[in-house]
Design brief:
single chain, 452 residues, alpha+beta, Jelly Rolls, eleven-stranded mixed β-sheet, four-stranded antiparallel β-sheet, 32% strand, disordered N terminus
């Protein structure tokens, strides 16, 4: 959990009124303490960032470290600002992989603990220590081991301040046969996390004449992104003899609470890839998945997206497919003025619109690819329409806004804005679509039968 440096004053805290009836009952029925209750929650969810050498602005590894920050922790947790995973509760699909959000019971426990005076509790009780991975460890190492292949970028020096920088270059993958990707993560090494705004990686593959041709997107990285897991029975392919076309955007000085404002020498961005067995394609004939940029407004890169000074803007885009698909992940993208996004599906045959995802407190310092659990991921029949919306706040009320008096236009600089979403799609045929629908129906019936 990473607590932002800015906070409300004590008077504002007192006005927030966190104590619900459930919290009041908890206060009456149970003396909540750090040792018996809160320490475990913080160790499991917060200490991964709030420790020595972590990206959090303070350490939260002991009661003595936690106690001075208790009111601020209460506020951030109650407002669902921490852990930093902006995805609305109660709207659309809630079954997500890599979901950092606290359970409501955990939130209520922390709030009630602070209301009771943040007591330490029985010193004979020792909260279980946090299981802390190495900060530079790959996200999926615990599940899949070390990556089967690591593709590094060319090293770059990033100054302490100045204008946006871009590096565009090619790196051979070294892959000698078509492989199916199981999982993929992009991460800057060490201190470079604060200055790498994004890192896109396209694939190019040789044609029959040995000339490289565009093949498709490998993956995408933006600050805070966890990584991607490709669903079972699905192949995102990296072709033999391919090369990566890197497009890395860096912002000297950094963005957000982790920015050091220092020169970073030899900055390298790495792609970690985990592969299925070499025979995976032939054995299972999986459906293909791709990751694409879905634009919300044509021409915005040429300046047509405009956010007026001290004003607001909303963009929306539409996309449909001529074959059935499954939407596997949703990652809205913008810069410092964007503050909300949503994904909906419109079904022309019925006139019904279904809300899939809503992010009402989006921040450019934490880009999350929201990975839907395969059994919950939205299935789109032929003709269904994706509706993607994003909102922009160019006022002083936006804590990420560097200058509300500026006209903001579409563009690639950090001070400009963007309006698109990265969406991973599994492309199905009619038989595959009908099989998934039937499998889900069967699981639902078994679940209902088990509850009888």
């Amino acid at each position: 959990m990473r607590i932002l440096k800015s906070c409300l004053g004590l008077g504002a805290l007192l006005l927030l009124g966190f104590q619900t009836q459930a919290m009041a009952q908890a206060d009456a029925d149970h003396a909540i303490t750090y040792n018996s209750d809160v320490g475990r929650i913080l160790n499991e969810n917060c200490v991964v960032c709030h420790r020595e050498g972590g990206i959090g602005p303070m350490q939260l590894t002991s009661y003595d470290q936690v106690r001075p920050w208790a009111p601020l922790i209460q506020m951030r947790v109650a407002n669902r600002e921490m852990p930093p995973y902006a995805y609305d509760h109660g709207i659309g699909i809630q079954d997500l992989q890599g979901d950092w959000r606290l359970e409501q019971e955990e939130i209520d426990t922390i709030v009630a603990w602070v209301n009771q005076g943040s007591p330490l509790g029985d010193t004979d009780i020792v909260p279980a220590a946090a299981d802390l991975p190495d900060p530079d460890q790959w996200t999926f190492a615990s599940a899949f081991g070390e990556p089967d292949l690591i593709i590094p970028s060319v090293a770059m020096d990033i100054p302490a301040d100045g204008n946006d920088l871009w590096s565009k270059h090619y790196v051979d993958t070294g892959v000698t046969a078509d492989r199916c990707i199981k999982a993929v993560q992009v991460k800057p090494r060490g201190d470079a996390k604060a200055v790498v705004h994004h890192a896109n990686s396209d694939l190019e593959a040789p044609d029959e004449n040995g000339e490289f041709q565009p093949y498709g997107q490998l993956t995408e990285y933006a600050m805070g992104k966890w990584g991607e897991v490709i669903p079972e029975g699905v192949c995102r392919t990296i072709p033999a003899g391919s090369r990566v076309s890197w497009d890395i955007h860096m912002f000297p000085g950094g963005v957000g609470g982790t920015a050091e404002g220092l020169m970073i020498k030899d900055n390298v961005v790495e792609i970690g890839l985990w592969f299925h067995d070499e025979n995976f394609i032939a054995e299972t004939s999986p459906y293909k998945q791709d990751l694409r940029l879905y634009q919300l407004r044509s021409g915005y890169e040429a300046g047509q997206l405009i956010v007026p000074p001290n004003g607001y803007t909303m963009t929306q885009g539409f996309h449909s497919f001529d074959h059935p698909v499954r939407i596997d992940s949703f990652q809205p993208h913008g810069h410092l003025r964007m503050n909300a996004a949503s994904l909906e599906v419109f079904y022309p045959e019925t006139g019904r619109t279904e809300q899939i995802s809503q992010i009402s407190n989006w921040s450019a310092t934490w880009h999350h690819s929201h990975l839907y659990e395969p059994d919950a991921a939205p299935l789109l029949p032929v003709g269904a329409v994706l509706i993607i919306k994003q909102w922009y706040d160019n006022t002083a009320a936006n804590p990420n806004n560097p200058d509300p008096d500026m006209w903001v236009v579409g563009g690639s600089r950090t001070g400009d804005e963007m309006s698109h979403a990265w969406i991973a799609v599994t492309h199905l045929d009619d038989a595959g679509y009908e099989k998934i629908v039937a499998d889900r129906k069967e699981k639902e019936e078994r679940s209902l039968a088990g509850n009888d």
